[in-house]
Design brief:
about 35% helix, five-stranded antiparallel sheet, 7 helices, Muramoyl-pentapeptide Carboxypeptidase, domain 2, alpha+beta, Alpha-Beta Plaits, 2 domains, binds zinc ion
Length: about 230
């Protein structure tokens, strides 16, 4: 599958999505393609009436329940979310494969590297095909008319979380595995003044700070944010 074709397909589905979020979606298509994972964007903007119709599916209408969000209660309704599907490629054709496998998880990890929030990490309603970027705005704020910035200043800085040290490589590897599993983040075991873990990059300091906080409270390891670039 050619990258250009995948990007072309994705662009069509991203109409009406916030340009900053759409750019991340396209970047994700590129990054996954480089690893021989073909993804398609299945939905971007969903109007409030479309959301209400979807909400009725599995409730007053036939089908399975696919969302817990009524109109105005999903980031899709504000152009801040998109859904994807991993595809098998057979004879040059893309065949959506909804079985969550390691490719899906890899896409999740790469999306998070781009600063996107991945539904695959949610606890109450796991939503593997979903990514969103909220600009720190709650749905209530968006419903009341608050708007994300129209243009986002390019920030070339990147942030990582660095943990405190572990006793031996075995403990360090086990810790890396635990952190990956629980968070879906990219995690590296590194040696830098002791055995530590380092995450992939976050594009905003705030996100990295939240991640470090999570490491401290959930895992009880020391953690700090490191700035790069
Ligand atoms: Zn979604």
């Amino acid at each position: 599958m050619k990258k250009a074709d995948l990007l072309e397909k994705a662009k069509k589905k991203l109409a009406g999505v916030h340009p900053y979020v759409a750019e991340k979606a396209l970047k994700l298509v590129e990054m996954t393609c480089k690893e021989n994972i073909a993804i398609i964007i299945t939905q971007g903007l969903r109007t409030i009436s479309e959301q209400n119709l979807l909400y009725e599916q599995g409730r007053s209408k036939p089908g399975n329940i696919v969302t817990n969000a009524r109109g105005g209660h999903s980031y899709h309704n504000f152009g801040l979310a998109f859904d994807y599907c991993v595809c098998d490629v057979k004879g040059g054709k893309l065949i959506p494969n909804w079985t969550v496998d390691k490719r899906w998880k890899r896409v999740g990890a790469l999306g998070q590297e781009l600063g996107l929030e991945w539904g695959g990490n949610w606890r109450d309603f796991v939503d593997y095909p979903h990514f969103q970027y909220t600009f720190g705005l709650s749905l209530a704020q968006l419903r009341s008319g608050k708007k994300p910035p129209a243009h986002v200043k390019k920030n070339s800085k990147k942030y990582r979380v660095l943990t405190g040290t572990f006793k031996d490589p075995k403990e360090q590897q086990a810790a890396a595995e635990r952190l990956r599993k629980a968070t879906g983040w990219v995690v590296y075991a590194i040696e830098k003044k002791g055995l530590r873990l380092m995450t992939g990059t976050f594009s905003r300091r705030e996100e990295a700070e939240n991640a470090a906080e999570r490491v401290r409270t959930e895992f009880k390891w020391t953690a700090g944010v490191q700035e790069e670039g």
